[in-house]
Design a protein that fits this description.
The protein has seven helices and 13 strands. With about 325 residues, it is an alpha+beta fold. A hairpin with a 3-residue loop joins strand 1 and strand 2 (about 25-30). Helix 2 crosses helix 3.
Length: about 325
């Protein structure tokens, strides 16, 4: 039985899917991106990576296969082990294995696993229906430059002088000169008028500002009836991000882990049995993804390298 199909299903809902005895597939949310060179836009997505050091069985994959195939949990564990052995044999023979909708695993010269994720599937449910698209480059034309070129190439027409119209041209020149004087006087008169309006407006604004400042001072220093005290009711926000210590098939084992975390000073919590038949135990819950991610990294270094992040409103 191929189990990559079930791993792909779980990657939509969880950030860590462990394949017992082989490694774990992790997801990280990447924001939308713009590639300026190709004018391409990429939606937010979940980027899949692989960690060969996380091999312990957390029960997630085996329980999912058991429920989907209607088999016992123990048989599902055996199915996973058989598939893992098949993967290891293919890696020795071919040097690589391809997992559908997940990516490709290869062995490098140092005999270490190298994972390259596929770009065909976006495991971020919030980006459902969003796809990559490219915007065509916008071409702008300089019409001003074209008009200047046309004016330079325009032909010049010479009109011969008519002696009979010389007197008319003299009177026309006098008329144009007079009109120029009137236009100039109108321009300077209008400019004087505009300056006068600006001076009057500025004076009014200064007067109004002084009155406003006076009212503010009176309101500040001469308040006879103080305002009543305002009481703010802070509503506690939701905490949908949880750092998980482990998920146990037996409730007794979950209780042991819970008691241990409480003794260590963690704000631990034992969650009720989930739909997979497991009892998760968490270090604590947080309101933001960044806060939970930071705490998870700290716990991995100091206490439990197999801690993982659960996003769910409990």
């Amino acid at each position: 039985m191929k189990i990559d199909h079930y791993i792909s299903q779980l990657l939509y809902r969880y950030q860590c899917v462990t394949v017992p005895g082989f490694g774990a597939f992790l997801t990280e949310i990447r924001s939308a991106q713009l590639h300026e060179g190709t004018h391409s836009f990429y939606p937010p997505k979940k980027v899949v990576s692989f960690n060969s050091y996380l091999k312990n069985n957390d029960g997630l994959l085996a329980n999912h296969i058991a429920v989907s195939e209607k088999m016992s949990y123990e048989i599902a564990v055996s199915v996973i082990q058989n598939e893992v052995n098949s993967w290891k044999n293919k890696l020795k023979e071919n040097g690589s294995i391809a997992l559908k909708n997940i990516g490709e695993l290869t062995l490098n010269t140092e005999n270490n696993l190298v994972f390259v994720s596929t770009d065909q599937v976006n495991y971020l449910k919030a980006s459902f229906g969003l796809s990559t698209f490219a915007s065509p480059n916008i071409k702008r034309e300089d019409y001003k430059k074209e008009n200047e070129i046309q004016d330079e190439n325009a032909p010049i027409t010479f009109v011969p002088e008519d002696s009979g119209s010389s007197n008319f041209l003299k009177y026309a020149a006098v008329f144009v000169f007079s009109a120029g004087l009137l236009g100039a006087s109108g321009f300077f008169g209008n400019q004087y008028y505009q300056n006068k309006i600006q001076e009057e407006t500025l004076a009014v604004q200064i007067k109004v500002q002084k009155q406003v400042d006076q009212k503010i001072q009176e309101a500040t220093f001469f308040i006879s009836n103080p305002l009543p005290t305002v009481t703010l009711n802070v509503v506690k926000g939701k905490m949908p991000y949880h750092v998980v210590a482990g998920a146990f098939l037996q409730e007794e084992n979950a209780t042991i882990m819970y008691d241990e975390l409480i003794k260590l000073g963690y704000n631990a919590q034992k969650i009720r049995r989930n739909k997979h038949g497991l009892y998760p135990v968490i270090y604590g819950s947080y309101t933001s993804y960044l806060e939970a991610q930071t705490e998870m990294e700290r716990i991995k270094k100091s206490h439990n390298p197999e801690a993982w992040l659960l996003i769910e409103e409990l």
